[in-house]
Structure formats: structure tokens, C-alpha cells
Amino acid sequence: MKKIALAAVLACSIHANDLADNSSSFIDGATISIGESRDGIKIYRMGLRKDFSSKWVQSSFGYLSGYWEGSLNYWKGKSGDKNYGVAVSPVFAYYIDLGEFKPFIEAGIGASIFNKTQIDNRNMSTNFLFEDRIGVGFRYKNFDFSFRYMHYSNASIKAPNDGIDIWIGSISYKF
User: Is 15 part of the annotated catalytic residue set?
Assistant: First the structure.
């Protein structure tokens, strides 16, 4: 758990300058996502994004960069249970540069707060949950299309820690 928290703090501090960059707007994109857990919990997310201004490991093949994402989350269980939350996450992405078409892989660990600790028969025990993701997608002009696996859990801060695994599709538009 300490390693996960340390990694999240390090990622946030590395890119604090991206958020404080006065040369561009604080938000440069919007995202909508729809997904489902293996046991039928529906997931709906709306988010705002800010691309990192930094690029690393640049070559003729591609580069490493990423974005910040803040989101509003709505979960609807099969039993009718509902849960609402907010999340923020730095996401690192490796883009393969093929001109206007850029396939990518992405990964990130963020933090979220939900109004309830349970949905259907899942008990997360805490309102605070880590938001982990790994995904693939492509950028075409101003749009990102991605498919990712997301995991929410409290990283065993408190038991039980049922967590939730989600497969989710997203479309983002860069202003």
C-alpha cells in the first residue's frame, strides 16, 4: 500500500508543472466513458482532461507523454443501487507517431471519493478508492478512442476490500 501511495505522489509531483503551466488553458479536452463490471454494474463517466506539456523518449517511432483526467462517476448496480464519485488521475501514454493517426498504450493510478462504500453485494469499506487503469487506443486529429481495464479498490486500507473491475470504452475530444 505504501508503494502505491508513494508512486501516486511521485507521479503527481513530477507533473505539477503541467497543471501550473500558464501558457495554455487549464483544461484542453473532455471525455465520456461507458463500461461494465463482470457482475453487471454499469459505469458511466464524464471527465475533463489536460495533456502533459512534456514528451519523453522521443524518436521517429513515437514518444511518452500523457494527461491529467478529472471525472464524475456514476455506478448503477443490477439491484438498482447507485453510487456517485469524483476522481483525478495522472495517466501516462506512449504514442506511436504515424502522423494524424497515433495508436497508444496508457496506464495510470489516481484517487477517487465515492458517496457510498457498497454497491450491490460489493463492500469497498472506504469512500476513498484508488483508480488504476491500463488501456489501448488511438488518437485521430482531435479525438482519442480508447478501451481500458480499470480497477477501483482501497488497496487493503480497510477490510473487506472487494474492489471492482471494469472494462470501459472512452471517447475524448481535445479542444
Answer: no
